[in-house]
Automatic annotation (TrEMBL):
This is Response regulator CelR2. It comes from Rhodopirellula maiorica SM1. Residues 47-69 are annotated as: Disordered. Residues 53-69 have a biased composition (Polar residues).
């Protein structure tokens, strides 16, 4: 069964038989696909951490672009 990388370590249920299990990487049938998913997840988490460290800019601090009609 395939699950999203974000669900690894979580309890998930099969939509067919409703069996519950903890998602893990024990199945070695698709290690490359998992590695790509994990790499993507790590890059996204890194980008989110960087974004959180950036000072936020509110709308009042930015210069709005005015349109001439």
């Amino acid at each position: 069964m395939e699950v999203r990388a974000s669900l690894l370590g979580c309890t998930v249920a099969c939509q067919h038989c409703h069996a519950e299990f903890v998602a893990s990487t024990r199945d070695e049938s698709a290690p490359q696909a998992f590695d790509r998913s994990l790499d993507l997840l790590q890059r996204v988490e890194s980008a989110l951490r960087r974004a959180e460290q950036q000072p936020s800019t509110s709308a009042s601090q930015t210069n709005p672009v005015s349109e001439t009609v």
